[in-house]
Amino acid sequence: MAPETLVLAGAEEAPLRDLTSYQAVGGYAQLAKARALAPQEVITLLIESNLRGRGGAFFPTGRKASFIPTPDKIAKPVYITVNADESEPGTFKDREIMLRVPHRLVEGCLIAAHAIQSRFVFIYIRGEYSTEYEVLQAAVDEARAAGLLADVEMLVHRGAGAYICGEETALLESLEGKRGQPRSKPPFPAIEGLYASPTLINNVETITTIPVVLEVGPEEFSKIGVPPDSTGTRVFCLSGNVVRPGAYERPHGITVRELIYDIGGGIADGRELKAVMVGGSSFPVMTPDEVDTKLDATSLGQKGLFIGSRRAVLHARVLR
Ligand SMILES: Cc1cc2nc3c(=O)[nH]c(=O)nc-3n(C[C@H](O)[C@H](O)[C@H](O)COP(=O)(O)O)c2cc1C
Description:
- This protein is an alpha/beta fold and 320 residues long.
- The protein is built from twelve helices and eleven strands.
- Helix 2 packs parallel to helix 6, helix 3 crosses helix 6 and helix 6 crosses helix 9.
- Flavin mononucleotide binds next to strand 4.
- Flavin mononucleotide (FMN) binds next to strand 4.
């Protein structure tokens, strides 16, 4: 059976915040492994794993990285921007990742930087996340002091509280110091992003999954969850009227029933389930007779729902 926690591994009981404890569970070993490979080889591993973006569109991560021009093709710097703006109501998975395993996010950024040959990483964090900012900044400082950043500059930038800045091009505008408004596409950020340079933009959970892909290997990773489309795990946000709300990492394909009843302890006060919101407020609600639906892209797609959008928010609401 696939392990249940990969992204949050080691932090199931208590947060894994400092460098020493992260290294005690093998932290930064995957960065060393990646740096011993050619950049293109790292991108190939990501493509083979079929890791898809955890921030919205479920776009294949390796393929997105392959769109970034290599230094021989362009005379500009290339950038990495991590989307930590997380403002969708009911979504709090990136927050949990940053609080529990900040160094795994930093490690993922550095592996991605090697893959696309970038020397600049910007992490754009939601302005309201002040504790998360402090924890993440401390991890970046610690990694820098330990020499792990090598020649990479890593900057954690606090947003000012605008929901729209989670949209990738509005985020870039905001990072450049302008009003956070979406740009028209094309050009896509991979070609013309931050300061009109090629920019790889990924969600916190996506980037934090990169060291996991290297650790388990792309072949094994691609068997976890519901292959071929929904590989790996997700950090599901369970909220609403359940006994044990929280962020729980499980492989794709767990059912809504398992999430609510086995993991979440069922509906509070012994009440009856009325509806479940899967995928955020812009999608249809799931009725109680549908709770055996699996949480993977194909199963949800058949119901007119979509796991990629709004990061698999899950609310359980009960009858009054
Ligand atoms: C209105 C709007 C809000 C968004 N908010 C977020 C967000 O808070 N966090 C996020 O990672 N992606 C958000 N996205 C998706 C991003 O535009 C982008 O697709 C994502 O960061 C790409 O990362 P990924 O490939 O790792 O999923 C939003 C998109 C839209 C249209």
